[in-house]
Automatic annotation (TrEMBL), chain A:
It is a multi-pass membrane protein. PROSITE patterns: ABC_TM1. InterPro entries: BP-dep_ABC_trans_perm, MetI-like, MetI-like_sf. This is N,N'-diacetylchitobiose transport system permease protein. It comes from the Bacteria. Residues 70-261 form the ABC transmembrane type-1 domain. It is found in: Cell membrane. SUPFAM superfamilies: MetI-like. GO terms for biological process: transmembrane transport. The chain crosses the membrane at residues 9-30, 74-93, 105-129, 141-161, 182-207, 240-261. Its main location: membrane. GO terms for cellular component: plasma membrane.
TrEMBL record, chain B:
It comes from the Bacteria. Residues 1-22 form the signal peptide. This is N,N'-diacetylchitobiose transport system substrate-binding protein. PANTHER family: MALTOSE-BINDING PERIPLASMIC PROTEIN, MALTOSE_MALTODEXTRIN-BINDING PERIPLASMIC PROTEIN. GO terms for molecular function: maltose binding. Keywords: Signal, Transport. The keyword 4Fe-4S does not apply. GO terms for cellular component: ATP-binding cassette (ABC) transporter complex, substrate-binding subunit-containing.
Automatic annotation (TrEMBL), chain C:
This is N,N'-diacetylchitobiose transport system permease protein. Gene3D superfamilies: MetI-like. It is found in: Cell membrane. Its main location: membrane. It comes from Actinophytocola algeriensis. The keyword Membrane applies. Keywords: Cell membrane, Membrane, Transmembrane, Transmembrane helix, Transport. Belongs to the binding-protein-dependent transport system permease family. Residues 100-316 form the ABC transmembrane type-1 domain. One of its GO terms (cellular component) is plasma membrane. Signal peptide: none annotated.
Length: 276, 428, 329
């Protein structure tokens, strides 16, 4: 597995190139956030920003409600991710390792559940929440995001469990662990990276959702960040500089969430190596 | 789990109630007067100045004991979906603001309270004609005017002066002459544009078509037939093309004035004119205050010297959802909002008031003065419920403009195709 | 290489297969009454949530697709059955099949691009170390986490005809024909830009999923492969691939579903234009249904979309249902 110096340099160069390509739109968003509003599009060559201003961040920060909306977003998003992961891990194990009547029916349910366009579901969903008395309450969003992210979470985690060689569990069972003991001690630690990847995805899906957040929450102080982001548009036009600055502020929590969980990506692998 | 149980119960309830999904049921019943009541008012972000609404709500609450006004500012993104669900919900807002081109699509569906009997008591004599028409359906009035605005030509006084243009153009010919002079003076700068005019500014196109005596469609009762291939409409389209070519604008032919935002481009100081709403100058001047000092405006000139061209009037209407539980209270609120006292404040804020003919406050600023001058000649799109779909979807007028300006289609094909697409949309 | 083949099962794929044979033997032997109910208990929360919050609204959508449900009916709570009128209206539109075909091709192109790029970057990421690795990961996460409203706007600015940085750069590099070049003048070109936007946002998920799968493979197997003197390709095909194959299949399947349903980005870039040439099925759903508040028609388009998706993924669903029929009762 040891690579020569030359190989390492080639690989790292490739890595940097990939990162640069992927970073460009983000870079453009970032520089736009620091540009004066009228310089978003100029005839001048501005690959490197020609002037820098913090006005957009000042005006975005001054926009009322950022912290309230941030809190709401965090509650519904983190809540939905946690619920999804718990229900997802519980379901992934029997789906990947056990056989029982109704297994295929369930798999089909999970698959088809993801095919319906959410834009078409919002009216039935709205009426459902209204009849449950949950409109204008954060739990309604939390439940919807739980439901939106669940099929995917179940499906992906099942894939990750399948990827773990069954022999590892068998070995543990031979060593005297029960079936679930083996799952807990062998499979779960190896599942670390999968749980991280899945949770990042679920987090971002819920974090970015706009339509349901808009339609379910009436009161300003119960709305989430995507709705806050849309307040930069008024009768008098759109404050693009403000939107760009606000988007930077908006993406940070997702990035922080990733940086927290990404250590798991590494430690998960190590744990797997130790236990395997 | 408790919440889950509740949701389950809710689901079961719906299942028992109907076969499919039902709304909350029709007919709002009037709440008994007396006792504390809440009037929910939805206005759009940026519509009414905060000072106005604060004073208005305070006065209304003072005059109606036990009433609280729940004033909720709505965002533009997703407003159609939000209105749809809100109108179908158990407690809809009592007053809503509708875009004037959207208003007929609500009026025709019986989801708004009939206000025909209240027009007179709501300052009806002074209503802005184009907005009044947007609120009518089948001879009844379903929404009232709120405020409006129309476009004028915002121009750089300093550039006009340097190019030796003595006065603002008052006819199409003078307008074209001014463009020629501006280009002669500043044309050496490749970034200079005498007039910024993107290919899909269909509001401006309407102005030219109205000026020729044409319209988008002709009405026959509640039926509409597109008339873009009429000689008048074609003449309007020809002038649009003439203007684009004469001005040497580098604006995209396949996009509108918002993409890219024309105010930002005007703000960079290389553009002598743009056809815009008054506040776009404020956007342009955000980072360049000098531009505001050096700018003024004139109404879109007519082909008849000395006249101003009719203009498309954009704006908003106000309505009371049919399921409102406070219909009478909501009508009182509308009466107050449409009274001279508050309507004047709209003029002061730079809008054309929907229910006042007193536009003197707009004269304070040269740009809003130009808007006011043209506003008497304001028109709107055909008052058909299907227009909302046309505007929210793929507007055939935009496709027609791009196809003709880029030379993909000749004028006959472009206008006939537009007629076909519009007629298909009108029949819904 | 022999050692590897002995220690690892290579038939964990496709993702739809039922559990490995050993599970059956040991599972059945010990199966008591308690153990039989355990799968159901474990599945119960997921089943409950999906039935109430996804399956039930989805069933209603099917119901609505046979009704006239405009704003008026919705507000008054009327139920007006119209049979298959909504379907005939949608299907009689000659454009429908063009749009369907366009959507399928567009989805296929974007999914292929996403999966290939995601796989390559994941493999690359495994071999990176230190700051470069963190740099790659952070850029991927940012591409993913930025709000759609901002990314679609930024893409429009980058590709702007007059002032876009792309055209300005190309002109600087000497390609003068890109002065004022419109990237949105044809449907194909517009869809290409939209495809890049979606790809940019979709690759991170595929990449992280596959990368996580790569990390899952126990290190000993790589070491064993190295001791056997396996080449990089051999190591990949015998150690990495078996672990990630179910994940690649799964990522492809999920990408098909998601990319097929993308609306916001397609709509934001050019509203399905020019002249309707970048209109996809979700845009059609919006134009015919949501924009005019004809929710019956919108539901009919939604049901048709699900049917097309089922056809597209039929092979995958078939594998899922057919494999080891005897084992799964």
């Amino acid at each position: 597995m040891n690579k020569t110096r030359g190989q390492r340099i080639t690989l790292n160069t490739a890595g940097v190139l990939v990162a640069l390509v992927f970073a460009f739109p983000t870079y453009w968003l970032l520089t736009s956030a620091f540009k004066p509003s009228t310089a978003m599009l100029t005839p001048d060559y501005d690959l490197i920003p020609l002037s820098v201003t913090f006005d957009n961040f000042v005006s975005a920060w001054a926009k009322p409600g950022f912290l309230t909306h941030l809190t709401n977003s965090l509650i519904v998003t983190v809540g939905a991710v946690l619920l999804s992961l718990v229900a997802g891990v519980l379901a992934a194990f029997p789906l990947a390792r056990l056989r029982f009547r109704g297994r295929k029916g369930f798999l089909l349910l999970v698959l088809i559940a993801q095919m319906a366009p959410m834009e078409a579901l919002f009216i039935p969903m709205f009426l459902l929440m209204q009849d449950a008395g949950l409109l204008n309450k954060l739990p309604s969003l939390l439940l919807v995001y739980f439901a939106i992210t669940l099929p995917f979470t179940v499906w992906t985690l099942r894939g990750f469990v399948q990827g773990i060689p069954y022999e590892l569990e068998e070995a543990a069972m031979v060593d005297g662990c029960g079936r679930f003991g083996a799952f807990r001690r062998v499979v779960l630690p190896l599942l670390g990276p999968g749980i991280v990847a899945t949770s990042v995805f679920a987090f971002i899906t819920a974090w970015n959702e706009f339509l349901y957040a808009l339609v379910f929450m009436r009161d300003k102080d119960k709305q989430t960040l995507p709705v806050w982001l849309s307040t930069f548009r008024t009768v008098f036009g759109t404050d693009w500089g403000g939107i760009m600055a606000a988007s930077v502020m908006y993406s940070l929590p997702a990035l922080i969430f990733f940086l927290i969980v990404q250590r798991k990506l590494v430690s998960g692998a190590t744990a797997g190596a130790l236990k395997g | 789990m408790k919440r889950l149980t509740k949701v389950m119960a809710g689901a079961a309830a719906i299942a028992l109630a109907t076969a499919g999904c039902a709304g909350s049921g029709g007919g709002g019943s009037e709440e008994s007067s007396g006792g504390p009541r809440t009037l929910t008012v939805w206005l759009m972000n940026g519509s009414a100045p905060e000072t106005l609404t604060d004073a208005l709500n305070k006065e209304f609450e003072g005059a109606n004991e036990g009433v609280t006004v729940k004033y909720e500012v709505q965002e533009w993104n997703g407003i159609q979906d939000k209105l749809t669900t809100a109108l179908a919900s158990q407690n809809p807002p009592d007053i809503i603001e509708l875009g004037n081109t959207q208003a007929p699509s609500f009026a025709a569906l019986d989801v708004l309270t009939d206000l025909t009997a209240d027009v007179d008591s709501m300052n009806g004599g002074q209503w802005l004609q184009s907005l009044k028409a947007s609120g009518e359906w089948d001879g009844k009035q379903f929404s009232t005017p709120f405020y409006a605005a129309n476009r004028s030509v915002i121009y750089r006084t300093d550039m006009f002066e340097q190019a030796g243009i003595a006065a603002a153009p008052t006819s199409r010919q003078e307008w074209l002459d001014a463009i020629t002079k501006l280009r002669a003076k500043f044309g050496s700068d490749p970034q200079f544009q005498a007039l910024y005019l993107p290919g899909q500014n269909w509001y401006t196109l309407l102005s030219f078509i109205y000026d020729e005596g044409g319209d988008i469609a002709e009405a026959n009762g509640t039926e509409f037939k597109a008339t873009m291939s009429s000689p008048e409409a074609k003449a309007g389209l020809e002038f649009y093309k003439e203007l684009v070519e004469a001005s040497g604008t580098t604006a995209p032919k396949d996009n509108d004035e918002q993409n890219p935002e024309q105010a930002g481009i005007y703000g960079q100081g290389k553009v002598a004119m743009m056809i815009a709403l008054p506040w776009e100058l404020g956007t342009a001047a955000k980072d360049n205050p000098d531009i505001e000092k050096n700018s003024s405006a004139f109404p879109i000139p007519s082909k008849n010297a000395g006249e101003t061209a009719p203009v498309f009037q954009g704006g908003s209407n106000l309505a009371i959802p049919v399921n409102s539980k406070n219909t009478d209270l909501a009508k009182d609120y509308l009466r107050l909002l449409l009274s001279d006292k508050y309507q004047t404040q709209f003029a002061e804020a730079g809008m054309v008031p929907g229910a006042s003919t007193d536009l003197s406050a707009l004269d304070a600023n040269p740009v809003s003065k130009a808007m006011a001058a043209a506003s008497k000649n304001g028109r709107s799109v055909p008052a058909t419920p299907t227009w909302a779909t046309i505007e929210a979807g793929q507007n055939p007028l935009k496709d027609m403009l791009t196809a003709y300006l880029t030379g993909v289609k000749d004028i006959d094909t472009a206008t006939t195709d537009a007629d076909t697409a519009l007629d298909a949309a009108f029949t819904g | 290489m022999a050692t590897i083949h002995n220690t690892i099962r290579t038939d964990t794929v496709p993702a739809g297969t039922s559990p490995p044979a050993p599970a059956r033997a040991s599972g059945r032997k010990r199966a008591g009454l308690g153990e039989k109910t355990i799968p159901y208990l474990l599945l119960a929360p997921a089943v409950l949530v999906m039935l109430v919050l996804l399956a039930w609204p989805a069933l209603q959508v099917i119901g609505i697709s046979f009704r006239k449900l405009d704003l008026g009916e919705l507000v008054r709570g009327e139920v007006v059955w119209v049979g298959v009128t909504n379907y005939t209206e949608v299907l009689s539109d000659p454009e429908f099949w063009t749009i369907t075909l366009r959507t399928v091709l567009f989805t296929a192109a974007v999914v292929a691009g996403t999966v290939v790029a995601g796989l390559l970057i994941a493999v690359l990421m495994r071999h990176l170390t230190g700051p470069v690795k963190v740099f790659v990961q952070v850029t991927l996460v940012l591409a993913w986490a930025t709000p759609i409203l901002a990314t679609t706007t930024v893409f429009q600015w980058i590709f702007d005809q007059q002032y876009g940085i792309l055209n300005k750069t190309l002109v600087k590099l000497g390609f003068d024909s890109f002065q004022g070049y419109s990237w949105f003048s044809s449907g194909t070109s517009t869809l290409t830009v939209i495809g890049m936007l979606i790809l940019w946002q979709a690759v991170p998920f595929v990449c992280f999923t596959i990368y996580a799968g790569l990390l899952q493979a126990p290190k000993e197997l790589y070491e064993a492969a190295a001791m056997d003197g396996a080449s990089a390709w051999q190591t990949f095909s015998t150690v990495s691939w078996p672990t990630i194959r179910p994940l690649v299949t799964l990522a492809t399947f999920l990408s098909v579903i998601w990319d097929f349903k993308v609306f916001a980005q397609v709509w934001a870039i050019r509203g399905g234009g020019p002249d309707g040439e970048s209109t996809t099925l979700p845009v059609l759903l919006y134009l015919r249904g949501i924009a005019g508040r004809h929710f019956g028609v919108a539901s009919a388009v939604a049901v048709l979309m699900i049917l097309v998706l089922v056809v597209l993924t039929a092979r995958y669903l078939q594998l899922l249902l057919r494999t080891r029929e005897g084992d799964v009762s």
